[in-house]
Amino acid sequence: MFRRSSSPRSAIRLHITTTDHVELSGLTIDGPGPVHFVLAHGFTNHIAKPDLTRLAARLARFGAVSAVDFRGHGASAGGSTVGGDGEMIDLDAVIADVRLRAPDRYVVVVGFSMGAAAAIRQAGLAAHRPDAVVSVSAVSRWFSRDSRSMRRVNWLLESRFGPRFAQRGLSTRLGGSWPEAPVAPLEAIASITCPILLIHGTADHYFDIEHAYALRAAADGRAELWTIDGFGHGESGMTPALCDRLAQWSVDQAAANTGGRS
User: Fold this and answer.
1) At what angle do helices 50-59 and 240-256 cross, to 10 degrees?
2) What is the rounded CA–CA span in Å between residue 88 and residue 245?
3) For a disulfide at 196, which of 145, 169, 223, 226, Cβ 3.0-4.6 Å?
4) CA dist., res. 172 & res. 108, Å (int)
């Protein structure tokens, strides 16, 4: 587990406006080498929570880090679309901002759960695509009810009491139902041309490991998959060793791909 004392050093606040005029709040930390990590958090999380601050501090040993609260979370405005088009737009805005501030950096998006789905969709569909994407605990298809945890999440999203409970109990503001289902990660991953790393745990209590296998198959051999025995879900399951391992994978990708964006 991460030590309690871990926290981002020399963090600078970020304020980014998306193309659909949502104000996002975040932070950036400088770091060594050619890599710039963009963190994409999970549903009901935000960058001030210990899991995210410790991850940001750990990754800053390997490169620069930028992270924002997705819409409807933390200090950002708007309402969450729970991995739909809203989060893809948010992530696209962060990458565009990084490209302006650090044009020579190799941009690696590291997404967790909802953020992993957003990372896959953004890398395959959006305008400002990353140089590599790391997906931790991603869902492959929408409306999954395979686990008790996901049945609770679907109740939250579908119940008329859900938005009130999400805001009061989880500090998350929901943005309403999708007018139509957006492109699923399983479809979007086929359009990704940059290196892909999928990480999934055997003890994930939200999404079964079959989601990872399905994503790898849909990537048609272009995605590397790490299955981690005993690993749970998203940010809360991360350890320093696993964080360092994915960070080193990112550094190696930067070295193998000329150390920068083409």
Assistant:
1) 40
2) 26
3) 223
4) 26
